[in-house]
Amino acid sequence: MSNPAPDQLELVRAFVNTYDHEDGTEQLTDTATLTAWLGDHGLGAPVATARDLERARELREALRAVLQHHGGLELDPAAPRAVDHAAERAKLSVAFDDHGDARIEPKASGVDGALGRLLVVIADAQRDGTWSRLKACAAEDCQYAFYDRSRNRSAVWCDMKVCGNRQKVRSFRSRHTHA
Ligand SMILES: [Zn+2]
Question: How far is residue 161's CA from residue 31's CA, in Å, rounded to a whole number?
């Protein structure tokens, strides 16, 4: 099960998938692994503090909630607020390059700035219509971030063969238990 997202949005998908709900595997185990992860993904490898780690994980789970919302779940307003706070900490601003072209960039340095670059990717993806296709699997024991390539944007499971089938078997069983 992979379902990569287009271009830079794949960074956001990879970030959300640093925690695997299915087997409880945490990739961002400590400050050093957070620094390494950011470095491996072209986000500058800033030295992370314990607080950065806490905030990064918080942002990750808030983004997961938004991705679940893209799949049809109701959104706890705390999630977009948490993402908004990350944007504030990153000090996202409009900047102009030598050609006079505008772009959004984080003015903050460190991990706040690096996470801010993920938020810029999201803002761009929203503009080009790909953001709402990035979803988190509706299976509660999975919640894996995947990109919905279906024509009518209707996918709710990261993998129909795995999570979709599992869900079907479950509802079949519960129907028959209740009967
Ligand atoms: Zn799944």
Answer: 36
For residue 23, the CA-to-ligand 1 centroid distance in Å is 12
CA of 157 to the centre of ligand 1 (A): 5
pLDDT tens-place string over residues 53-74? 999 999 999 999 999 999 999 9
Report how far residue 80's alpha carbon sits from residue 102's, in angstroms, rounded to the nearest whole number. 25
How far is ligand 1, taken at its centre, from the CA of residue 36, in Å?
A: 26
pLDDT at 143 over 90: yes
**Ligand 1 centre distance from Cα of residue 135 (Å):** 10
Domains of the chain: 9-178 (1.10.3300)
**Stated pTM of the model:** 0.92
HSE-up of 19 (CA within 13 Å, CB side)? 19
35: its two tokens: 């620094």
CA of 21 to the centre of ligand 1 (A): 10
- For residue 156, count CB atoms less than 10 angstroms from its CB and return exposed for 0-12, middle for 13-18, buried for 19 or more: buried
**How far does the centroid of ligand 1 lie from the alpha carbon of residue 71, in Å?**
12
Ligand 1 centre distance from Cα of residue 167 (Å):
10
Give residue 160 CA to ligand 1 midpoint distance, Å.
Answer: 8
Strand 102-106 relative to strand 19-20, pairing: unpaired
pLDDT value at 129 more than 70: yes
